[in-house]
Write a structure and sequence with these properties.
With 239 residues, the chain is an alpha/beta fold. The chain has 2 domains: 143 residues, Rossmann fold (3-Layer(aba) Sandwich), CATH 3.40.50; 79 residues, Putative phosphatase, domain 2 (DNA polymerase, domain 1). It has 9 helices and 6 strands, in the order βαααααβαβαβαββα. The longest helix has 19 residues. The chain is elongated. The relative contact order is 0.17.
């Protein structure tokens, strides 16, 4: 039986608004700060290792990232890092939290069309306070019937979201920039996934290859192409 799509879930960071570019800018400043101690490649490698070691305790988001940056700086300098340099790291990360929310091109008009036809859910992961701040400042929260901020995007997490909202997985379509977090778990549940890559992908979110052979998987270059794709899926055409 072919179920009609009734609900569309959308990721937030790097799907609706820019986010990873802020981390890219911080990484540049961070490597410059530690340039007297190590080359950028070493700094990036050790920082990523520290992030992964801390992920289970700190979770996703700028605050956990800040702690990992400080820990990495102490480690790479054998404790020689100055208090003023640590202050600069904290200030850089604070600016990330204070940065205005900048929507990707076409997001507002796409949501205005879709919310008249489908139930829209905003599903994002990370620090609750930071994500709630961005959602409130985005100016697009009114398009969504429900918002979920989860600690991680796993099959189990999506299953709980669908159960709470009384949504059949076959009637659910998820849109996001991360194959690992936004697409593969939903496909495993029997839903539909639309991958819209952002120009930067955090190493932790990388997967070897998209599941192009999956019947419910779709890939677009821009969110502006989403309405036409959904029309094709709803009409039963092969996009």
């Amino acid at each position: 039986m072919k179920w009609p799509i009734t609900t569309i879930g959308l990721d937030a960071d790097d799907t609706l608004w820019h986010n990873e570019n802020l981390f890219e800018d911080h990484h540049r400043k961070y490597c410059e700060l530690l340039s007297d101690y190590h080359d950028p490649k070493t700094v990036e490698r050790v920082l990523y290792e520290t992030e992964m070691n801390n992920l289970e305790l700190f979770g996703y988001g700028v605050k956990g990232f800040t702690l990992s940056c400080i820990e990495t700086a102490i480690s790479l300098t054998d404790g020689a890092i100055k208090a003023e340099e640590i202050r600069r790291i904290i200030d850089h990360c604070r600016q990330m939290l204070l940065h205005p929310v900048e929507l990707l091109e076409g997001v507002e008009s796409v949501l205005q069309g879709l919310d008249q036809r489908f139930r829209l859910l905003l599903i994002t992961k990370g620090d609750l306070r930071d994500q709630e701040r961005k959602i409130a400042k985005s100016g697009i929260a009114h398009h969504f019937s429900h918002t979920e901020v989860v600690s991680d995007k796993t099959v189990e997490a999506y299953a709980r979201v669908l159960q709470r909202n009384k949504i059949h997985s076959e009637q659910f379509l998820m849109v996001g920039n991360s194959l690992k977090s936004d697409i593969l778990p939903v496909l495993d549940l029997g839903g539909h996934g639309v991958h819209i890559p952002y120009r930067i992908t955090w190493e932790h979110e990388n997967v070897q290859s998209p599941p192009h052979d999956h019947d419910n998987f779709y890939q677009l270059e821009s969110i502006q192409q989403l309405p036409d794709l959904i029309d094709a899926i709803v009409l039963g055409n092969n996009p």
